[in-house]
Amino acid sequence: MPVGDLRKKTLTTDPDELREHFEKAPWASYALVCGTGIAVLDLDGSLGTQSLVRLVDQHGLLEIGPVVATPGTNGLHYYFRSPGLPTNDSFVPGLDWLDVGKAVMGAGSVHKNGQRYEWVIRPGEMPLVTPPAWLVELVRKPTAVRYAAPVVTGGTAYARSALRRECETVTARYQECETTPSTLPPSRWPR
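and the corresponding structure tokens:
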């Protein structure tokens, strides 16, 4: 899979070039190009965790392979064999599908906050797996779960109830739209 500097559009799979690059700059960060053998389920923080738990409850276990902890969002990158799907940002709240046309920071790279992306499960510990059919279908048809009700925790009973009602109102209005909210500019969001 190609690795390189995306800003300069220099990508390589040549082991000698990679070795030379990291000998010159062992501190350097790198990106892996998705859709060239790998795809990544990008889970962002507690919202992504809640969404993934709901999906697993609904569809069954998610077989996983290599996993990287992401320091910027307190999340995880789950690596899969690429099914060649288009990238789908936020196909479910807190979850992005990174595939054809996207890149992902590699383990050992440094996030802008100074922390490193770290392996949780290394490639040698678990093989790269094919994403389950239910996940592929959800990525292909994002509106099927885009409006999943949020999990409301913390605060007073009154605050939880008010937030839950507001979320239901917003969800109902978005469902009335002919297009998904991610394709509408904020000026056209339902009020």
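(Above: one complete record from the training split.) The chain has a mean pLDDT of 80.
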